[in-house]
Amino acid sequence: xxxxxxxxxxxxxxxxxxxxxxxxxxxxxxxxxxxxxxxxxxxxxxxxxxxxxxxxxxxxxxxxxxxxxxxxxxxxxxxxxxxxxxxxxxxxxxxxxxxxxxxxxxxxxxxxxxxxxxxxxxxxxxxxxxxxxxxxxxxxxxxxxxxxxxxxxxxxxxxxxxxxxxxxxxxxxxxxxxxxxxxxxxxxxxxxxxxxxxxxxxxxxxxxxxxxxxxxxxxxxxxxxxxxxxxxxxxxxxxxxxxxxxxxxxxxxxxxxxxxxxxxxxxxxxxxxxxxxxxxxxxxxxxxxxxxxxxxxxxxxxxxxxxxxxxxxxxxxxxxxxxxxxxxxxxxxxxxxxxxxxxxxxxxxxxxxxxxxxxxxxxxxxxxxxxxxxxxxxxxxxxxxxxxxxxxxxxxxxxxxxxxxxxxxxxxxxxxxxxx
Length: 420
Ligand SMILES: Nc1ncnc2c1ncn2[C@@H]1O[C@H](COP(=O)(O)OP(=O)(O)O)[C@@H](O)[C@H]1O
Ligand SMILES: [Mg+2]
Hints:
Blueprint: E1 8-11, H1 15-28, E2 36-38, H2 47-55, E3 60-64, H3 69-82, E4 88-91, H4 97-106, E5 110-112, H5 118-128, E6 144-150, H6 157-172, E7 176-180, H7 187-191, H8 199-204, H9 211-217, E8 219-220, E9 225-228, H10 242-253, E10 258-262, H11 270-277, E11 280-286, H12 289-305, E12 313-320, H13 329-336, E13 340-345, H14 348-357, H15 368-381, H16 392-399
Parallel strand pairs: 1-2, 1-3, 3-4, 4-5, 6-10, 6-11, 7-9, 7-10, 11-12, 12-13
Antiparallel strand pairs: 8-9
Helix pairs in contact: 1-5, 3-4, 6-15, 10-11, 11-12
The structure holds adenosine-5'-diphosphate and magnesium ion.
Magnesium ion binds next to helix 6.
């Protein structure tokens, strides 16, 4: 063991088990001192006892699953909620995969079986003790971080963020993560993925995050994009707070080249934290008056929080038609104080189809909307676009992902979309 003190707590009403833990700990880590022993039944720990654990600077908590695993998991959730970086180790049966998964979701770091044995506890302590610097051994990537947001719902944030991520991944073949912060997030839907883990699971597992764990928590899309889903079930919500936002971003930044964040149209305080971490911002608006007004407000907020150069802030006008209800682009520039980086056409049919099939628009080279989204992505990727990612091989493979068209080889520029 290293020199750092690993002061640990053991929660169990089982006195012989407590005694056995005390013995093992004395052998494995004498410098840790006696463990703090909590003999209160799992469901009955008082706020004072929880506080005592917090203040005792306990760095690892062992929880005996005992005879009531539901209570043990509940307690684990509470402990992680209080201090996400204080690992919880569950003690009990290690052969039940359902229980293991439930434990992981509750935020437990490890399971150890009974009877307690010296080697296992030694390994646990050496893995989980705070002396092991967090993030050590993580690759030294430092992602380019895109914040995509709007001032108004239904504008196209999720569409742009999802298609940007897909384009970046496909054309640069660099590691790309789509991070859905929208509480009603639909990024998974647009990728046809059903995520098993969310932002919350990541938050609960910060203390033991490494590439392998991160890898197991994201969904892999066939285009190479990884997705971390938004918090879906608000009943078990770990709030998206400023602190959690920064920690999530910090914990993924080292493992990806590109991170695209769907920030929706939230006005919550954590938005500022996400903006402060970003290298690029895309503000999505339509050319409709209320959308522009809200985009203007969002841009003011972006300017306060974003730390990069002003050229890193770009305005994208979606659902653009030259119809009479639309504000002209030059007027729009005057109002917003930013040039329009790109416009994307209104295309109800393609948008609907993409949502229905879970096939990102950029994979459908038949629509102008898809092409324009693709061009937006490649322009942002710049020099990182690999030669040959666009030509036939790419298109050929992509065409196998889009709806099969009778007799079509590769959808070509300007070819009419097969209708319906
Ligand atoms: N250019 C477009 N033309 C037509 N419909 C669009 C366009 N872009 C997005 N949509 C549709 O508008 C709705 C909102 O888009 P979405 O990307 O989810 O916006 P947001 O994330 O800003 O709420 C979706 O039903 C989407 O299919
Ligand atoms: Mg959205």
